[in-house]
Structures are given as C-alpha cells and as structure tokens.
Design brief:
alpha+beta; five-stranded antiparallel sheet; 24 helices
C-alpha cells in the first residue's frame, strides 16, 4: 500500500531540515538549537491535527531516558577514576609506550578505546578516556582536537566487534527471534554468537585507525591544546621570555660510583649554574629536595638548565642525559607542576629572612629560581643580562617577586598563606585521592560486571558505580555535578523527542517506502547497499535503536523477496546504524564535541570520508563472511 504524505509528516520533515541548517550554520550553539527544536515540537503539537508530533506530558522524557542517565553516570564514574589517580597512571603508561608524537598516540589511544568498546557501551568507554586524553594532550602539547575525534570514532567502530558492543547488535537477536515466529521454517534465521561480527568490527576499527594515521593531518581540526591555564607557565618558555633564563627541564642518570657522590645539591647548583628540582634514589622520589641533600649513587636528578650545558657537564662527570623525562614524567607534567610567581607582601614574616633560613623547599615546596626586585633579577644561573647570585642567601624584601618551580597542589595551599601573594592565578587545582583508588576500582568493576553479566538496565548499572564512588567519598557530590557535561545532556535529551516524532508520525516509514521504491529491480548486492545507506541516514535523525527496530523487519522482507540471505540483511542494518559520523547526534560525538571545541563542520569534513569507508568496508567483509 502506498503511503501518502500527511501534514504531520511535512512538519517533521521541515523540522529536520531546520535542525540540520541550525547545526551546520551554528547560528546558535547546537545544544541550544536542539532545545529550540524541542520547544517547537511542544508548541506545534498543541495545534489540532499535529497531536502526534509530541505528547506534552512526555516532551521532556528524554532527560530521564536510559541513554542520558547512562551518560551522566559514566561521566561521574570517569571523574572518580581520574580523582583516584588511575587515569593519570594510564595516561603515563600510554605516553611511555607511545611517546609524544601524534602518529603514535592516535593508533594506541584509538585502538585501546576500540577494544574496550567491544565489551562496554561505546559512550562509556569514550567518557572514561576523555580525561586520559586530556592529560596526554597537556603533557605532549598535541591539541586535544587532534586526539578526541579519532578516539570517539574508534569507540563507535569498536562497538561493532562483539554482539554486546552496541545497542543495535544487542537488540538484533531479539528481533530475529521475533521475526522467526512469523516466517516459514525455510526462512528462519539463526541467532548470532557473541563473536559472529568480530571480523567485521576488527576490519572497521583498523580502517578507522589507518584513516586518521594517514589522513589525519588534513581532516582533523587544529584548535590548539587545552593548557593548564594562561598563568601556569611551562619551564623553558617562561624563564626565557620574562627573565632571560634559557632553560630546559631534563632528567639525568647518575651512575653508581659517580664522582658526584657526597656533593650537596647546593654546591652542584652554584658551581654549574643549574637547578636541581627533583631526585630519585632506591625507589624514593623527592620533589624540590632541600639544598643540603647529598648525592647518593646511583640516582636520577631532574635539572633545570640549558640542555647543552647539562650535556657538557654530564660528559665530564660520566652522567647520562635522557631525551625525555622518564621517572619524573608524571610528577613534573605540566598538569602537575610548573613555574609560579609569588610576591612577598608588606607584613610578611619572611621579610629579612633567606630561603635557606626558612628551608623554603621543605617548608613551602618552592624551588626558588629567581628573585625579581625593582629592575633587577637575581638568579642562580648566570646569563648575558645578569650575573649569578646565591639567591638562597639573599634576604627577602617587601615587594620581591619570587619565581619558583612548584607542584600546583603546593601552590594551591600557599594561596591561603598570608606570607605570600600568589600571582599565578590560573593553574590546575587538582586534589587527587590515591587512598581511594581501591574504592574507585571496586565500583567500576561492579558497574562493569552488572552491565556484562546481568539484565539490569544500563543506566541503573552505571548509577550503582557512580553512587558507590560518591558514597565512599572518591568524589564529593559537588564534584560529581561538575563532572557532568550538561551541554551534552541537553543536546541529547532535546533531540530525543524529534527522533520519536519521526517515528510516531510515520515519517520514517514514508521515507523508507520512497527509498525502497527507488531501488526497484536492483541486484541483491545493490539492495543490501541501499539498506545500508538507508540505515546510515536514519541513524542521523533518530536513535540507532529506533532505526534498527524499524528497518530490520523491512530488510528481512526485502531479502526474502529478492532471494537473498535474511540474516545478512538484518545484520547489515544493525551494523550500519553505527555509521554515525556526519553530525554530532550520536552520543559519543556529542560527548567529545565540548571538550575539544569541535564544530559541526569538523564532523562533516572528517565524518564524510569515514562514512563512505564504513559502508564500503562493512559491505565487503559481510559478503565475504556470509
């Protein structure tokens, strides 16, 4: 029966067109644009004849939907894992293995997320990795926008590796069982095993990784790296720009039997115009150790100075200078430590005292690098602009600006100390709780076990993990609220009524009928490709679950009529509804949009090619397998 175009369908099609225009042009921020569309649906549904657009008492059901609550819960779980220090350690492990180059970071990060997504909802794995990738971006200075999109796309692709990786695949066997009841025995379909789709998913994941490795330089946006803050300074750049001190932060290995054994840090620093800001010996690490500390071999030292000078000294003393920080990489990452400025105010108890007298490193955690007084800069390192001074013995005066290397948590405490005025205003104020790592890991495992091994609703399983972390004080409740990206929540919740309107008004069925009529007498492979394209288009404007429920019965009917394999056609729909890269309507795309500062045009640029690759690779592998 030919379905006619109704007034409600025309209104929904117009709203879809307006939504796409608003998203592409970004006249309004897309989360607000989605809210406007939801409001429009609510108002239009009050007009006689348009009641099916939305039910007033269900217009805001999206805010309580399983998908939205799941996203909120997984963001809180991710924040809890981050607060315990687990994600920071994971970031360090990735950096040790991948180095600091984009070409190595992309496949390792994206591949890891893709594999995790095969057993965990893709939005969950993406949410957990956002803080990890943010830390990696800050430490490597690779812009977050260059890393999050590959990670997000591969999280979606990884969901096609197993039958529990995405909602459409989870749903597929139930749909097959339901359809078998109405089909003759010769057309009955066999349920698919857990790893039946693994070759398809692996091929898609590898395609995504290779796509970004080889073409990422052209298709990925470069919006700059999210740094710790405009006033939190990197060591080398800041010292050079403000105080004329050309310095690098390097790690040096002091071998056993070194002639430096027994020398104090202060003697070495004064004799060679450098700063020792960290030491490591026999498993113990000291941050900004006191100057009277003596060298114990073998050990490692973190030194601020000119790399060429340090390498020359190292050659004389038989030391090894590492190309990058190793043991100190985590402790001295830009998100953890850096250069800060503090002023000695009138009335400070430090006036007239020296850094040595107050044991500044031990008492305040400040590795003093320079004192700026009036138009003069006093520093331990000699430069063309000023001579070296033993600043540890220089009495402090009111108005002195102290330049120090410090951990940001030490600096946060000094903001409450009346002896200092902290000039560096923007820096990471992290309060890690490593003592809570056991609780964080426990509730993460509990949530994961409930998802995989129980029939509990996804949102409830994740809320068990999130609630457990808050109850055990891994996170404070205010921190949990801050961890949620509310723009993402409003974007997704506001789009859900539009997807429901597409289905409830019959617009989806009408679009399907029109496209199928165009396919006509196409060969079986052409019909399959048409179904894949149709599923891809539908998942852009409605939920992938809704698209799967709508299209699987149609695909099976087409396959039987054309003499094709109904299982293959049903699987084509379930796989293709994951092909959602063009606009940020997929949960994962919406999730990464805010942190990386993406625009809709970025998804159109990168996602357009990815969409075509997905269609080609998935169709080829499915036909080779089935």
């Amino acid at each position: 029966m030919v379905m006619g175009l109704t007034t409600e369908m025309i209104v929904v099609l117009l709203l879809l067109a307006v939504t796409i225009v608003l998203f592409v042009t970004e006249v309004f921020r897309i989360d607000f644009a989605a809210i406007l569309i939801m409001i429009s649906l609510g108002l239009l549904s009050q007009i006689p004849g348009l009641e099916n657009l939305a039910q007033s008492n269900h217009l805001f059901d999206g805010f309580a939907s399983n998908a939205v609550i799941s996203i909120i819960a997984v963001m809180i779980i991710g924040a809890g894992l981050d607060k315990s220090g687990l994600l920071s350690n994971l970031a360090s492990a990735i950096l040790r293995f991948a180095g600091k180059t984009e070409l190595r970071l992309i496949p390792i990060i994206s591949g890891s997320v893709g594999v995790i997504s095969s057993f965990m909802q893709n939005v969950g794995s993406a949410a957990l990795f956002i803080p990890v990738v943010s830390r990696i971006s800050a430490r490597t200075e690779v812009p977050l926008s260059r890393l999050l999109m590959p990670m997000g796309f591969c999280a979606i692709l990884g969901g096609t590796i197993t039958m529990v990786g995405s909602s459409p695949l989870i749903l597929l066997n139930d749909l097959i069982a339901g359809l078998n009841d109405s089909l003759p025995p010769e057309h009955h379909m066999q349920p698919l095993s857990l790893f039946a789709v693994t070759p398809i998913g692996v091929a898609l994941l590898l395609t995504g990784i290779l796509y970004f490795v080889f073409f990422g330089r052209w298709v990925l946006p470069n919006r700059g790296s999210r740094d710790a803050g405009s006033s939190a300074k990197s060591v080398g750049d800041y010292l050079k720009k403000i105080y004329g001190l050309k310095s690098d932060l390097v790690e040096v290995i002091v071998p056993e039997g070194s002639i430096l054994r027994g020398e104090t840090f202060a003697d070495i620093m004064i004799a060679h115009n450098l700063y020792i800001v960290g030491s490591y010996h026999r498993g113990q690490r000291w941050f900004t150790p006191v100057l009277t500390t003596k060298v114990e071999d073998p050990c490692r030292l973190a030194i601020i100075g000119r790399r060429k000078v340090i390498e020359s000294i190292a050659e004389d003393y038989g030391l090894t200078v590492l190309a990058d920080l190793d043991i100190f990489a985590e402790a001295y990452a830009p998100t953890v430590a850096g250069i800060a400025e503090l002023v000695i105010p009138p009335g400070s108890d430090l006036i007239g005292k020296t850094a040595r007298e107050v044991v500044m490193r031990k008492t305040y955690g400040l590795g003093l690098l320079a004192i700026h007084r009036a138009d003069e800069t006093l520093s331990l390192v000699e430069t063309t602009e000023h001579k070296a001074s033993n600043i540890g013995r220089v009495p402090f005066c009111a108005g002195d600006t102290l330049v120090a290397f410090t951990a940001w948590d030490n600096l946060a405490r000094l903001t409450e100390d009346r002896d200092f005025v902290v000039v560096t205003s923007e820096f990471p104020r992290e309060e890690l709780r490593p003592s809570k790592v056991g609780w964080a890991l426990l509730f993460f495992v509990i949530a994961l076990a409930l998802i995989i091994f129980s029939d509990l609703q996804l949102s409830l399983a994740l809320l068990v993990g999130a609630g457990g972390m808050i109850a055990t004080k891994v996170l404070r409740i205010d921190e949990a609220y801050e961890a949620v990206s509310w723009s993402t929540v409003f974007l997704l919740a506001s789009l859900i009524p539009l997807g429901q309107a597409v289905q409830n008004t019959g617009t989806a069925a009408w679009i399907t009928q029109q496209i199928l009529s165009l396919l006509g007498e196409w060969p079986i492979w052409g019909l399959q490709a048409g179904i894949a394209v149709l599923a891809t288009l539908f998942t852009l404007v409605m939920s992938n679950v809704g698209a799967t429920v709508l299209l699987v019965p149609l695909a099976v009917s087409i396959a039987i009529a054309a003499g094709g394999d109904p299982t293959l056609f049903a699987l084509t729909v379930a796989i293709s509804t994951s092909n959602s890269f063009l606009i940020p309507t997929h949960q994962v795309n919406a999730l990464i949009m805010g942190p990386a500062g993406y625009k809709v045009v970025d998804f159109l640029k990168s996602g357009g090619i990815m969409t075509l690759l997905f269609l080609v690779v998935s169709l080829i592998v499915m036909n080779l397998l089935y």
